[in-house]
Amino acid sequence: MFFARLTGQFDRFQALVLGFFAGLTAFWRILELFIAKEELFPGGPYKIFGAFNARDQKVGQIIGRLRSNLRCFPASLKIVVNHSVTPSSRVRPAKKMKTNVVDSTREAGVQNLRFIKRGNDSDLTTIGFACQDTNLFYMNVLVIGSGAREHAICHSFAKSKEVGRLYCASGNAGIAEIAHCVPIAQENVSALLSFARENETDLTFVGGETPLALGIVDHFERAGRRIIGPTRRAAQLEASKAFAKDFMARNDVPSARFVACDDPESAIKELDRGTFGGPGQPVVVKADGLAAGKGVVVAPDRDGAVSAVRSMAALVGTAAAERIVLEECLVGREISLLMFADGEDFALMPATRDHKRIGEGDTGPNTGGMGAITDASLLSNDEIRMITDTIIRPTLRGCEREGFRFRGILFLGLMMAADGPKLLEYNVRFGDPETQAILVRLETDLVDICEAMFDGSLASCPIEWRECSSACVVLASRGYPVKPQSGDVIDGLELVRNVEIFHAGTAHAGPADRRAPKYVTSGGRVLSITATGDSLDEALAAAYAGVAAISFEGMQYRRDIGR
pTM of this prediction? Predict the structure, then answer.
């Protein structure tokens, strides 16, 4: 009541609050005296970030509670326990208490425990936590995926001062140089959730579309785990082309005229009916389901479209091609625009353009992507404003109106037509290889951006990008995209300078040696050679110089990226 009288108030709650803070200040001072007397940090400054009062039997509970609230314990953490007892105290012996504290902290990974015991005329246990690290909020981060996209994401997280331990499931040989790779497939949602629990990950970032379509975000959120990505329902924007086209129509998002067909035979009948023009008219044929970027065929005429419908199941699988979407063929410049989204606000990334076909001059079959660029010339400010007003805002409003606020990475595939931008497709995650070209320009800590997406505060989160251009050239193995060859030794990586090498289909050639690692190919797309420059020409020259130093049997790549 003394504190209440000082303020002219007699509110019991206010007195208790003021009393609590006065007591906390006292404990803080006690801890400072202990640190000074015991010389816990003789080598430099420290920061106190916790002081608690508890009886002996609650010491372990307090440490456990702190452990659950902190992202992880910093390596230089010291825990100070002051236990004061009178001979008549009924608390357990100090030696037993010390054991409990040591066990609790050892379990948390804390090595530098200092236990201080003092006796006087009161029963009191004071627990303090202090650390020399200026940043106390280290995070355990899990990235899900195994391609060059995930390598680029891991590379961004590895640069963060806020990340303590970085995991990747399942990763690849290159990712293993900067993260702990765990052998869990991205489709195994239950195993990924168990891993996140057991390893106390504070953030999970989903790279690819498959786990999102399987509802990994829903599973993690129900378990109280923090994860970046849209819910299963929101992921339908990518997982089903028919759902996406219907969504665009409902929300007045400009797009190509389309027909969704329940089976291939219905699609062929629709083509024969002349819905998209005469026999010589080009038509776009899409598999409804996920197809790893290979489920779109731009047929030059009706016969080509019929052939694409009949062969789609063989190309992408029966499940993905069970339904077919037919679209009119739009003409214009194809651009991709990605953004961070927190459910209401968004933050745009640099515009990018990728190259899907395997051959130069956009020839041959579609692939997951053979290269990408970012450059200020891709979109003007007026075009970005038009895209924002006609596509982005209607999309985010539509998501909220239909009951699935979009939080995560939203990717817009756009056609800049003569009558304005048209939306070709949604992706609900980072693209590959667009991510590699984009993230090499990111200067803001990716952890801070993730926190802003969680908090719904992207509007107040400044995101900075390097003022430059970037280029990514993908090196693929022989036989890609049909039947890629694997097991070929990769030479020349140690000769590459001033570029980023993001691994995709790579494995260690024998036991891993961090001093001189050797790699072999293990998939279709093998490496993404990524560079920046003051101009697009400089970025391309640097990327292709890196490519020239690397070799493996059957290596193929496009020489016209960015042209």
Answer: 0.78
